[in-house]
Amino acid sequence: MNESSRLYQGDMLDVALLLPPESFRLIYLDPPFLTGRERVGSKPEYAYNDGGSLDTYLPWLEQRLIAVKKLLLPDGSLILHLDWRTSHHARVMLDRIFGMNRFINEIIWHYTGGGRSKSRFSCKHDTLLWYARNDNPYFDIEAVRVPYKPASGYAKGGIKAASGRHYQPNPSGTPVDDVWDIPIINPLASERVGYPTQKPLRLLDRLISALSAPGELVGDFCCGSGTTLVSAQKLTRRWVGADVSPAAIACFVDRFRSAFPNQSLPVIQKVD
Length: 272
Ligand SMILES: C[S@@+](CC[C@H](N)C(=O)[O-])C[C@H]1O[C@@H](n2cnc3c(N)ncnc32)[C@H](O)[C@@H]1O
What we know:
about 25% strand, 9-stranded mixed sheet
């Protein structure tokens, strides 16, 4: 663990209020989505309530986003991860909090697996809203190039324009766009820890690689099983994690210890 990484158990609002302003390069938030059901994982204690109504959910979220924004460096970024239920409300809310011109991308995380609907097109994507504090956020597209599609001219050795000019492929592949095909964690995947709605490391690896540099501070204040923190640790970023659920924090602690057996963890600070 880097000396300045920290772990809190408490409401993300209370945690945000005690952290230093303008210190985070990237904050990723994957809060409850308002699915209307209790989310339960492989153990009864791996659970969180995802019910409620829009009338209470939106003010709850807004209060926390306002607090979290203050923690970002001037060229830092927020990623808010939601789905079709609330992402449109959240986008309008974030336009208000950050300013419309601070909206950078709506990233679509497309996945397959799970059941298929017969009454409508199956919902197989989440929406990640990227807002920045100023109009020149840190961004390293080179860190996240992906292989060319096999049918692409570049994959076949390059493209010859009508002018005769030859465009060579980049050995690292093509810059990634805003639709990301990343599989959900399959039941046998070694990274699965049994926490409900655990996100894949590949998703967080890409976000952290593009939106922060090694040594910088990354935050996740509803961290669940701590996917963001594990990715940040692996990618040599400093991190601050929080979750209101003691079981989530315990889950992350087990996960961290098995992923990084030689690293020490910060003392868990309880925030009431
Ligand atoms: C969608 S899950 C996060 C999953 C996580 N990204 C992962 O990969 O495991 C949402 C988390 O938000 C936490 N949570 C709910 N309300 C919270 C609050 N007010 N403050 C902090 N965490 C909260 C829940 O306990 C739950 O762990």
